[in-house]
Amino acid sequence: MQTPTALLGLGIMGSRLAARLLGAGVPLAVWNRDPAKTAALVGEGATVAESPAGAVAGRRFAVLALADGAAVEEVLWERGAAAALDRGSIVIDISSIPAPAARRHAERLAERGVAYLDAPVSGGSRGAEAGELTIMVGGDRGAFREAGPLLAPLGRATHLGASGAGQVAKAANQMIVGVTIAAVAEAFTLAEAAGVSAERVREALLGGFADSRILREHGRRMIEDDFTPGARVATQVKDLRTAEALADEVGAQTPVAAAATELFVAHLERAGPDLDHASVVAELRRRARGRPAGP
Asked: E-assigned strands of 96-200?
């Protein structure tokens, strides 16, 4: 695809998405708050912009891969990206932000003749590297069709409805992810406390009804104590709190997700924000410490 595109934000996900787009031949301008992160992409063909406005000017697509809703608000409206977008351009926001915020961005950008797709992703850094992300999209269907060739190298995109629908799906996704990680961590801690190898339990569960990608990938991380971040604890807490706020807004009951949120928050306060979210097993191990092994 030869359509000029900008990508704003080169964190864990954004840097990998940039590499995928460059590999697909997309003419790409990049911007990052810390310019040191842009250096590796120059050799792959990226153009480095000094500002968000400079990155998006003259570009048909602008992909946002930012940390949270506050960062999206700042980059779009305070740092000049929205004002620099040409009429007819399309913003594809893969950041995980509240659905009401996504709807506000869509409305404000529409007044400028710019389409906005909220398109959060799931699949972590490995999915981003492999081009196997799940992309949940809300917004104008015509804009979604136009963005299809750009999204194709990144993963499988599904249009879910009007603006904000992608963020609703992401909230649901993060509830499932958080609850399942917590459940795997609890199961492993139970096995260890009962004197049974968590590694052997994981092997036994593969292929059964308890099997999942989280059991396979995050379960391995827990056993190996490999908590190099693919998705950070702080991000998991942010997304669970976003889901909690959405549940309050629409009157849904989410008691299991609330329990998982409490666990992740406790772990965040003790371990800090930067470990992989699978490291929540350490909080459960801490709580079990000092108890004798075995039934």
From this structure: 115-118, 121-122, 133-138, 155-161
pLDDT of residue 293: 47
Other beta carbons less than 10 A from residue 138's beta carbon: 27
Q: Which residues carry out catalysis?
A: 170
Backbone angles phi, psi at 24, to 5 degrees: -90, 5
Taking 70 as the pLDDT cut, the residues of the chain under it are 1, 290-295
pTM for this model (two decimals):
0.93
Look up residue 263 and give its DSSP letter: H
Amino acid letter, residue 114: V
Residue pointed to by tokens 């990155």: 55
Residue 280: closest CA among 294, 291, 295, 265: 265
Helices 255-271 & 281-288, crossing angle to 10 degrees?
80
165-214 tens-digit pLDDT: 999 999 999 999 999 999 999 999 999 999 999 999 999 999 999 999 99
Q: Are 54 and 131 in contact (CB under 8 A)?
A: no
β pairing state of 90-93 and 115-118: parallel
- Can you tell me the distance from the alpha carbon of 60 to that of 190, in angstroms, rounded to the nearest whole number? 52
Task: Read off φ and ψ for residue 108, nearest 5 degrees.
Answer: -70, -40
Which element (helix H / strand E) includes 291? Answer: none
Please tell me whether residue 137 adopts helix, strand or coil conformation.
strand
Which pair of tokens denotes residue 87?
């009429």
Helix and strand counts by DSSP (H, E) for the chain: 15, 9
Cross-strand pairs, 121: 135
Backbone angles phi, psi at 172, to 5 degrees: -65, -40
State the CB neighbour count (10 A cutoff) for residue 155: 19
